[in-house]
Amino acid sequence: MKAPALVRAMRPRQWLKNVLVFAAPLAAGVLFDPVVWLPITLTFVVFCAASSGVYLINDLLDVESDRQHPEKRRRPIASGELSITIAWTAGIILLVVAPLAALLFAPIGFFTVVVLYEAIQIAYCIWFKHVVVIDLVIVSSGFLIRAIAGAIALSIPVSQWFLLVAAFGSLFMVAGKRFSEKIKMEGSGAATRRSLEEYSASYLRFVWAMSAGVAMVSYSLWAFVLGDLNTHILPAVSIIPFSMAILRYAYSIDKGTAGAPEDTVLGDRWLLGLGLVWLVVFGLSVVFR
After folding, report:
1. Bridge partners of 228?
2. Helices (H) and strands (E) in the chain, counts
3. Per-residue pLDDT tens over the stretch 142-185
4. What are 232's strand-pairing partners?
5. pLDDT tens, position by position, 247-258
6. Half-sphere exposure at residue 65, Cβ-oriented, CA atoms within 13 angstroms
7. Do residues 123 and 155 lie in contact, with contact meaning Cβ atoms separated by under 8 Å?
8. How does DSSP assign 164-188, residue by residue?
9. For position 1, what pLDDT does the model report?
10. Fewer CB within 10 Å, N- or C-terminus of the chain?
11. DSSP characters for 32-98?
């Protein structure tokens, strides 16, 4: 059964990105404490509302160009299935409700993070979407902000290694998606993004390859800080599935088949399996440290 147009326009499939709010509690070893389950779940819900509000505004601003796109023209707003008035109303409500809800259960810092996330993403939709380099940084910042939000909502300190892995891991995925789009558009002879036309495939390859390298090195150094090769080897062991997952993701990028991160992960059973293995090993490493 087809979901209502408004629900589909909110892109619930992309809510998977908001799982990143659980990253900091997992890294800090508090995710398995029942006390944090309610606030971190509410944090996830708040970001689902905020991100859906951004998606609605983005699709409203891009409605004309989406109608010329072979795939995006099927989106509820572009196809006319969802009215402009309802979309605007729902988008604004979600963008207002999300930060207000954040005030009800988390420190004021979390409210600030949600507002900052919305402001940056809306600025991207209006002004920066077609500005080279800045567009990569802003999109990847959305992933980083989600990871930081989980820490701020629970008042958890985060290490510099966590921030480096989150930042460059995000840039890796975003640059990889752009690279795949570039390859696909060059093959079809069409492009819908001005910034995509200005990027060269070699530049995008440099960005995602560099980001992957920094993310892997940062994670490895972080793992060695978390554990001890003589008494607690699990953090070091987690480097193996983490690195293999990065390499598998890079394989999809290099083939030009890496789309949205959630689609790439869910569409590759080997990548999904490596991710689950890493999650189990890393989870055990923080539980037994």
Report:
1. 232
2. 15, 0
3. 999 999 999 999 999 888 999 999 999 999 999 999 999 888 87
4. 228
5. 999 999 998 888
6. 10
7. no
8. HHHHHHHHHHHHHHHHHHHHHHHHH
9. 45
10. N
11. T-HHHHHHHHHHHHHHHHHHHHHHHHHHHHTHHHHTTSTTGGGSHHHHTSS-HHHHHHHHHHHHHHH
1-158 CATH fold: Tetracycline Repressor; domain 2 (1.10.357)
Q: In this structure, are residues 216 and 278 in contact, taking their beta carbons and an 8 Å threshold?
A: no
Residue the block writes with tokens 């500005």: 131
Both tokens assigned to 113: 């993070």
Q: What is the pLDDT of residues 72-115, one digit of tens each?
A: 888 899 888 999 999 999 999 999 999 999 999 889 999 999 99
Note every long-range contact of 177-183, with CB atoms under 8 Å and residues 24 or more positions apart, other chains counting.
177/253, 177/258, 177/259, 177/260, 177/261, 178/136, 178/204, 179/204, 179/205, 179/208, 179/253, 179/256, 179/258, 180/252, 180/253, 180/256, 180/257, 180/258, 180/259, 183/256
- Tens of pLDDT, residue by residue over 176-208, are 999 998 888 775 555 456 678 888 999 999 999
